[in-house]
User: Fold this.
Amino acid sequence: MPTPLTGRQIMVRYLQAEMVQATTADLQRAADFLAWAREVRSGCARQRSSAKRAQREAWRKYVDPSVLW
Assistant:
């Protein structure tokens, strides 16, 4: 019994099958789209991490920094 394929492996095989019939312009548009999607995901992660950092440090604006404990 062969090992079951992961979702990523299924998608890669599907993409390879479509690449055989695609034109160069189709491949260029697909590559541009994938690069754009990766940039969007990294931007979302960057925005989430900065929001978490801001929330984590928000208490500091209500505390007098000259007071030492």
